[in-house]
Amino acid sequence: MRFKESLTRPGIRIIAEFKRASPSLGDIAPGADPAARAAAYERGGAAAMSVLCDAARFKGSPDDLRRAASASSLPLLAKDFISAPERLEEVAAAGAAAALLIVRYLDDAALAALLARTRALGMDALVETRSGEEIARAVAAGADIIGVNSRDLETLAVDIAVSERLLKEIPDGIVKVAESGIRTTADIARLQAAGANAFLIGTTLMKSDDPEATLRQLTQLTQLTQPPNHQTIL
Question: Cys-Cys crosslink for 175: which of 126, 145, 150, 212, Cβ 3.0 to 4.6 Å?
Fold first, then answer.
């Protein structure tokens, strides 16, 4: 199943993340095995899996994608600071079904070129934003999956109110992903009410002693309704 398709199916759609460390927290789970996590995430009902491929900040690599792909059928998101097509080709060969493109680090020409190359490689792209101006740039580039990061990449501070506000600025027909700072079912309810179709959750799952059970708890929010544009996504 394609990454985008998985995010738009009924229910609480969680992109479960694998990361050993982060710039804000340092080591989180340095000995974690991506294959074991992938299997647990799939059993727990994840819609997709995000795999950090950046070595310097997150102690990850494309080999983690390969190991995750060997253990589950979840569509994999290569999460990295991608700025060159060669990196896209590398993560595609490692098994990625989608790649993260961060608007903050790309000019308009580079964003459009990388988006086109991602699609040419048969992958989807999650285009990450943090402001109304960045959302407008992502839309202009033709992004069909747009994420809003609750974390400020400069200060590393997290505020899900930012995502709550900015998700409403993404046009209908585009898949909307809430990223970072999501810990509870109340956070999910709040962001879904703002229009989120899917939720990227990392630290909460990586710190969990039982990520499968944690995912089950987060995905069984049957009282929530789908956002208004759920049926209009192409």
Answer: 145
Catalytic residue among 6, 179, 197, 212: 179
Active site (annotated) includes residue 149: yes
pLDDT digits over 120-155, tens only?
999 999 999 999 999 999 999 999 999 999 988 888
Q: How many CB atoms lie within 10 A of CB 234?
A: 8
d(CA 21, CA 2): 27
Burial of residue 36 (CB within 10 Å: 0-12, 13-18, 19+) is: middle
Instruction: Single out the residue of 40, 128, 57, 125 nearest to residue 91, CA to CA.
Output: 125
Q: Are strands 26-27 and 21-22 parallel, antiparallel or unpaired?
A: antiparallel
Q: Sorting pLDDT into bands at 50, 70 and 90, what band is 225?
A: very low
Write the CB contacts of 113 (distance below 8 Å, at least 6 apart in sequence).
85
| Residues 20, 60 contacting (CB under 8 angstroms) | yes
179 is annotated as an active-site residue = yes
Output the pTM of the full model.
0.92
Alpha helix ranges (H) inside the chain: 3-7, 34-44, 55-58, 62-71, 85-93, 108-120, 132-141, 160-166, 185-193, 203-206, 211-219
Contact (Cβ atoms closer than 8 angstroms) between residue 34 and residue 72: no
Q: Which of 42, 128, 134, 212 is catalytic?
A: 128
